[in-house]
User: Fold these one by one.
Assistant:
Number 1:
Amino acid sequence: MSVKPINVGLLGIGTVGAGTYTVLRRNEQEITRRAGRPIRITRVADKNLELAQRVTAGAVAITDDARAVVNDPEIDIVVELIGGCGIARELVLEAIGVGKHVVTANKALLAKHGNEIFALAQQKGVMVAFEAAVAGGIPIIKALREGLTANRIAWIAGIINGTTNFILSEMRDKGLPFAEVLKEAQRLGYAEADPSFDIDGVDAAHKLTIMAAIAFGIPMQFDKAYIEGIAALDAADIKYAEQLGYRIKLLGITRKAAAGIELRVHPTLIPARRLIANVEGAMNAVLVQGDAVGATLYYGKGAGAEPTASAVIADLVDVTRMHTADPEHRVPHLAFQPSAVVDTPILPMTEVETSYYLRLRVEDKPGVLADITRILADEGISIDAMIQREPGEGEEQTDIIMLTHLAREKRIDAAISKMQALPVVRRAVIRLRLEALDK
Ligand code: HSE
């Protein structure tokens, strides 16, 4: 066994970069025993030289010129932890172009530019590894790409954004409104200073796009994802859902349907008795349904310095082991052989079939319920459960909450517009989606 170290150039030594540096050093012996040779970060590039100096304590060459690291002939693997789709994209393409392997945690980059990046990597015979891009420390890419390779994947449903899961947990636990909990999340450092990527569901959609590609052998199609965040969620609906035996989670769902692939992120009612419904706080979890294995559930920390470093280093070990292998003998980037990737259409949201939670604020008088159920019947939508809040003393309006059986989204849209036109319906109808997650 060769003992020559493999040399790593680290681009970005922020939270995850520093975690990677620390864990690699702390567990050096174990990692070397596993990888077959030492893995050494020999160069670090960061705009903040003082930070880089502080983390590495002078043990490594530091620079603010990332291109110098990418083009250094001594570097075997480039680890990109800069984030975003600007300079990070340029550097990743440049590194691949000069024949370096790349490890990245950059989900936005892969979801939006993955097709270009993997095509170039294929052409150049290098590896691009990205375990840290989805659900932080949870080895979900490894599981989907290798562990579940015997299966036809039916669907994946994931809690893949810790910030929003923390917010939803707090809203339910403490009955607080969204805006107040968001402030708390910011104070605790969970949410970004600009938390819109988290709360609008975009971060989850990036991760979902990547999982869908490797689960179904399709290209990255982030621009076709349906994305709805949690900002408009009302604490009242969390409470009503609970009364009906459900929790509301921001789920990323991808499913292979007869006519195409569903790719959607939205607040979702799920039965409270499911394990995944009990994933609280900033934790992540991914539920995968395979035809042979059935349901498997992966749980852990989806963010943070060392959990994410754990995934980055797993990739470094993989690349180190496979470095000298013929490219054809490596696990394909997107799990399927590049020639076998099929451009299956992503279903528009109107064609998706799921169950629904509807809440209507109505005048409390005879015939109202009959009008509403007639509209649903006319659209072929069947009701599964219903509650009506008892109006308070002197109140003339009340809430009706209904759960439906499976229905196509366009039929629900049509029913909602008809309901909205009834004079007895006094506010915008609230519509949430519901997933049983049982088969
Ligand atoms: N902002 C992300 C989250 C971090 O809250 O889960 C990792 O992508």
Number 2:
Amino acid sequence: MAYDDRFMSLAIELAKKGTGAVNPNPLVGAVIVKDGRVIGEGYHKKYGGLHAEREAFASLTEDCTGAEFYVTLEPCCHYGKQPPCTQAIIEHKIAHVYVGSSDPNPLVAGQGIKELEENGILVTSGVKKEDCDRLNPVFFHYITTKTPYVVMKYAMTLDGKIATKTGKSKWISNEASRQRVQEFRHELTGIMAGIGTVLADNPLLTTRLPNGRNPIRIICDSHLNIPLESRLVQTADEIPLFVAMLDKEKYILKDKISKLKEAGAQILYLPEKEGHTDLAALMKELGARGIDGLLLEGGGVLNESMLREGLVDEMRIFVAPKVFGGVSAKTPVTGCGIDEVTEAEEFTLSELERIGNDIYARYVKRR
Ligand code: AOF
Ligand code: ZN
């Protein structure tokens, strides 16, 4: 029987409800259909909790023998925090499974589908694959690299400025665009900024969303210039704060280190690269601490280093209908820059939206 797009779309909408709560695991939704009617639905609600498939079975309103099963991600076939979902599908005598994305988790990777087929269940994969894949760029990246998926975000004027020549930046984008950024902070596990931004703006880097989850805050601060009285340090005992500094300076800066630790901050000691903390090493360190996704909020020097190191996976850009001018007005990516056009990292436009009079564009790295 031909599949019905509407059921996979429903599974996708269900999956999104887990945003911010399932990391580093994937967003997954599932729908059980009998005679064209939905008789069960579920999504992965919380890290470590039931998988979407078992949530759907738990919600059944009638017997599902011979039913169709729509799931946004290939069902797992291994024992992790949860037992294999393939087992539940087989036990419930499902006739046909429609799968959206394949699961790159080495413990699954095609084995889930194979097991279903070996048990006489029909499987159609790649159903609304692009839309399903769009749910989990962070999971796909993290499960295979063990480093965070990095999203660079900024708001700029029509002439590419992020502040006026006197440094004023409140506000460039409109309120609805700024609200969207709060959602990113809820969505991604970590948020990172350079020390320059901390000294200039004294930011909190939290989520101002009702029931929002605060990201783990990471500051790149080679020489530990972060002020003890900054809002970041002042809130470090409640909201995690990591400060990444140069390993070779840990002895000269030991007093400051102990004060920061006392305030609740964690210090990450990193090797040096071109005078700064080695960013690739930092990404590994963050990955090892379970940070699967990272919102990069500048400043320009850090943005440029991250791009040049090839560590940016996605860009989320807001363009506001204003022009600031001024040679000295700040731009989003500074640093030393490149010489040749061909050296530039290329991105693919993956989403384009109008938010009032602002443009919101999302670009992903070309692989
Ligand atoms: C989820 N939720 O709905 C599905 C997942 O340690 P576990 O048992 O939670 O297993 C995690 C793996 O299970 C995950 O990496 C992915 O490969 C697979 N599917 N995971 O957290 C779900 N369907
Ligand atoms: Zn599972």
Number 3:
Amino acid sequence: MYKELTDLPGIGAKTAEKLKKLGIYTIEDMLYHYPFRYDNRSRVIPVRELLHDQKSLIRVQMDKSTLKRRYAKAKRIVEIKCFDDTGAVQVIWFNQPYMYDKISKLESSLLFGTVKDFNGKKHLVNPEIIDKNKETYNKGYTPVYKLTQGLTNNFLKKVTHDYFENHADSIEDIIPHYLIQKYKLIIRKNALKWMHFPPSEKHYQKAKITLAFEELLVLQLGLAALKAQKTSEKGIYFNYKNEIEKYLKLIPFELTTDQYRCLVDIKSDMNSTMPMNRLLQGDVGSGKTVTAFFSVFLSFCNHYQSAMMVPTEILARQHMKSFNEIFNNTGIRAELLLGSQKEKIKKDIKSRLESGEIDFVIGTHALIQESVKFFNLGLVITDEQHRFGVNQRAVLSGKGNRPDVLVMSATPIPRTLSLIVYGDLDISTIKELPPGRKKIDTFLLKRKKYDQMLRFVEKQIKSGRQIYFVAPSIFENDNAIESVEKVYAHLVDNLTYCRIGLVHGRQKNEEKESVFGQFLDGELDILVSTTVIEVGVNVPNASVIVIESAERFGLSQLHQLRGRVGRGSYQSYCFLVSDTNNETTLKRLETLTISNDGFFIANEDLKLRGPGEFLGTKQHGELDFKFINPLNYGKMIEIVKDEADRIIDENPNLRGEDFNALNNSISEFYKHKKIILN
Ligand code: ADP
Ligand code: MG
């Protein structure tokens, strides 16, 4: 039996190197390198039936007397007239001069190419010549693979095909047989084969379902194994007396029931030797920060250091401000660590972190530099966790000795997705908003109503409120998209008495911070910005946000942006400016005008756009799905989760022959994905 790729005929060391570029290191990898589409060669099409723009397979005789080569518009052309019983077709190759010799030797052939009408005459363009000996794997639905320099589709097709021809029997099942039967799945050998060479659409669907099931099962059991391992590790036991009561006295408002419940979750996790590994999720403005700060308090009371990592400096400063408002008389020594700080300051903070003279640090990526060391890091918080890779979180945690971990996210994730994305985390959710919050009135606005809207904005400013304008691009380069520069110029011209600032990602940090600081301190009436303000920015006095070219943003992102207003007691408004006529887009945007519920919106977004936004590489972490689109597999995810839970209950060590292969796959998973946990 073949083990290594290079054991396969036709694959030498050089080819193996090229295959690595496609992520193919083993034979197994090759079998899982699924085609991204298929050519339909299931039927030889009579020439008379050829249709413009259709990829078609034809079997034809060559009229050799018509074979010629010529130049046209700097292209080298080979062409020949071919025919079958039903008619004739002109076959033409551009820039493949070697075809001339090849054709000279042929009397008839099977050809596969695209049909084009040139001047009302049918042509078959750049067809592949299918040799007699290659016909077996060039009929039916044939795979089209992602390729890399120096590898052809035909080559991959051939080695894959040969492997199935000669070694298919060595492909064992991973899914236990009782599950294959229960869910009418197919055996793995066929599933893999049909993924590459499906005899029909139906076979392909069966194969896909089986492989998705397999992938989910390994994932769920793998995550369960990781979690079991994690909970068996000893972490820090934080002593608890009555810190919740003490903490409640520090904050200037009453916590909502949800916030309180999350506080208790956090307390229970920390007050145990099992390391906390918890996600705190809640809609924008639901008050996650104040909830998370309790963990810092409890850590401090136990004489441990805490660190909080956030994606932007703006957010770091703001959290520090909120922190100081709560903790000003408690003796907690808190500092910021930011990339833009002077070297001298950073050095000083680092040295005090190492000596234990700082209890709590809030920082950006600067925190995960190697030079940052802690005296006794007991707690790690990450805000807006989807902005960080799991690796980055792991690096920060690695600076302590199994610290407790709390991650925060304002991107609500539908349940089926959270099983996948956060399979390893315990989840606490804040659903209810703090009292007194008013629904943010949201309007979809055509550009011709823009001036009317500006009059409204003026009124708000006159009554003391502040306003955000957000645009998708920085510079003016495309008339269809609004840029912050253009919006800024327009506002400066039209609202002459207003104080207007501009921030965008290309500015120097200091400039950004300074403009933002002015807005925070109420010295600016209007802040024009790109989406740099999307994350967590908190100015309770802001009551209107205008989002230009709104069709350019995802719903969840718009919801995040909208969450910049309505953070205080003022009635707040969101204007989505868009001239789009696309009905789907309009429908998407209308979701925001009818709902303020992040979970509802996320679900709608998922329905309309697919899961890309949720499973973008960052959130997705190291989990790399072969082809599961959780949108289509919601039901299956639940089913597999139940089956996995049952297996863990009844047979936690996966004993028995039926589980052998599954066991191996999980160990593989475990080996590669260790980093998933913090
Ligand atoms: P997010 O969940 O988006 O991070 P924040 O923690 O920034 O939300 O909270 C938003 C605002 O609501 C802050 O100004 C915060 O002080 C305030 N807040 C949080 N919890 C409450 C509460 N229970 N009652 C009143 N205001 C609250
Ligand atoms: Mg926040």
Number 4:
Amino acid sequence: MSTYKIAVMEGDGIGPEIVAETVKVLQAAQRKVDGLKLELAELPVGLAAYERYGSTLPSSTVEALKTCDGGILGPVTTHVYNVHDESMVNPSGKLRTELDLYANLRPARNFPGVNTRFENVDMLIVRENTEGMYADRNLHEGNGEFMPDPDTVVSLRVVSRRKSERLARVGFELARARRKSVAVVHKKNVLRRGCGLFVDCCSMVAEEYPDVAVSDFHVDAFAMFMVQHPEKFDVIVTTNMFGDILSDLAAGLVGGLGLAPGLNLGDRFLLAQATHGSAPDIAGKNIANPIAEILSVQMMLEMLGIRNKDGRALEAAGRIKTAVEKTLEQGVRTPDLGGTATTSEFGDVVASHV
Ligand code: ATP
């Protein structure tokens, strides 16, 4: 028996709609794979949790997560959270530091049946997830943004050797199982110390992987190369904010945010979370594309399978991947991809293919 305890956190905006379809697909995979047991535990986060428990990330949620193998997190509408209210933390950012989910894996590839301007795209952005420019998570205590006077803001960026090295190792390890090529993306011509340290750490780790080709790029030029020749890139290792921006660009190359999954990876916990935000403009209409969230869970199962040498988790991941592709191939699509399927219809078809 392969048993995994998985937390389910709906989040805000379109979160409840896409997470419901993801759970539907996950349960279909569980039914199909003999000996795979997924214990799903719903945990409150986001605006609904604030209404009910007075916090967007109740401490009971964090404690419960520490007993889980993985979790599914819907997007959160942090831009409406009151910055002066300490109970309105960004659950996504806080969980990344609290559970030390240090690498954010964001793949972008072409899908069958989705027409795009680019072909043969298959890249994986490996983004640092716990420091960098993100003020809410880059200090042990306090916030990395402060106002010396009402017209001035100072923002701190943190880059550390330990976190850069362990991130690079994830990137090189994953590249070994792919096309054996890593692009390190930075801005060390200007951010000489921060990006300089990051690049040095990546170069040091690269020596342990002589079979993996390594190159490095300034982030601004790299944005151009990604659009000119996206098919050339395999694994991209970069700092937090550059990775956040480049992963949306990558999603745009292959059909949009609805197709952009993500996995937050720690040594003891995995958190599946689509790259996109909570899309308040389409929330509650049953038209959001659930693919990104579904494929985030697929990535989680695959990683559980690899780490635990568990063929059942790998089989479930494989079934979900193929089911999404079959659904797109047969022309079932949500409106963001030019189709007419609702979120729940799309989830039904994927689940039936699983
Ligand atoms: P955040 O900063 O929280 O990531 P964002 O500013 O990147 O948020 P999103 O919420 O991701 O914004 O939405 C950007 C656009 O993409 C919106 O028009 C939204 O409707 C669309 N979008 C995002 N996710 C999906 C989805 N799953 N299905 C369809 N459209 C989506």
